[in-house]
Input
Amino acid sequence: MEDDIAILDAHHHFWNLDENYYPWLSNEISESFFLGDYSQIRKNYLVNDYKKDAVNHNIIGTIHCEAEWDRNNQFKETEWLSKLSSNEHLPSCIVAHAWLDKKNSEEIIAKQASSPLVKGIRSKPNIRSQPNSEEILNKGSMQDLNWLKGLKLLEKYNLNYDLRIPCWHLLEAVDVIRLIPNTKVIINHAGFPWDRSEDGMRLWREGVNQISKEPNTYIKLSEFGVKNKIWNYEQNRQIILELIDLFGPKRCMFASNFPVSRIKITFDDLFTNFKKIVKDFTSEEKKCLFSETAIKTYNINKSLLNINSN
Output
């Protein structure tokens, strides 16, 4: 096992709740949160906290994904993170937020794109709460013509799109992805295989299989936690290997989703497990999975990376 392999953490979050407002972390706890009780992460999580968590691993850089900062000022999080990066050398890249279905969507997208660290946008579409739900979605969903119009703007500004949806929306997303063939679409959190039953995994497999056939798609091997269950090594190993087989190492990237994943697993155990799962892969394949895929997909400036760390 290559314990010192360079890691570009492809998805994590920072927040300072003393200074900044994140409704989901500052207001009442939501009972519907996908990992259950998240009270333990409702506290500041900054660069030094991350470094403590990651101390046993060779982190050369990170990608910060928008953390649902107060939507009344979508650019403020980017400004804060840019200062953090300048002062403390993390994050190395930002996936920012912009609503895609608003009248000022292009203004916000353009403003986010003006930041050198911003390489992508994550804007969660409106979704059904359950696979068999009869909820009628329109505004803000992947069927909303205004939302699709905003999504198509990302190519103009040379931005990736981070897509976070439950697995029961993956097939629907295939048609959307085909509308933006020149935009890199990164599926968040392994497509969320939340339901580990036979039927649930069949639904997930059908979705990721179809998504993987689109050449502009990539996937983050992250957030394998399941509500009310422990982090299951064998189940998650199978999921990771299936995804690597579908997408290939050049379209897969390991990520921590810290501090959210801490609800189910420590950072050290998480990346130790990742290394163990791919221990028989070639050195080049490991480089892709742990750093190179993320660096190339997000076009990260290598001068911002701590290549000589550890």
Summary: The mean pLDDT is 96.
